[in-house]
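Open question from group meeting: does this chain pack into something compact, or does most of it stay loose? Before anyone orders reagents, we agreed to write out a predicted structure and look at it together. Recording both the input and the output here so the notebook holds the full record.
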Amino acid sequence: MFYRVIFHEDALDDLESMDKRLAASVYDKVMSYLCSAPFELGKPLKGEHTGLYSYRLGKCRVLYSIDKDRRTITIIKVGLRKDVYDT
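Structure tokens returned:
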């Protein structure tokens, strides 16, 4: 079962500001792995980020939400761990 992946405008900006190789790696892993197992690969977040999940890719984190009914994943933010949780 695959989920359709939607990148929020902010997440696309995050990818564009990253190193090109790193951004390509993050994009490829999201499209290859995360879309097939979003609940298994991601960690549910708490506190002010309740309802979102975090997918760890080395030093990077991908924050996303899941819509089970529409079978979509919306990528909210992409970045280094130290920056991604800031709102």
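Observations to bring back to the group:
The chain has one domain: 4-84.
The domain at 4-84 is CATH 3.30.2310.20 (YaeB-like fold).
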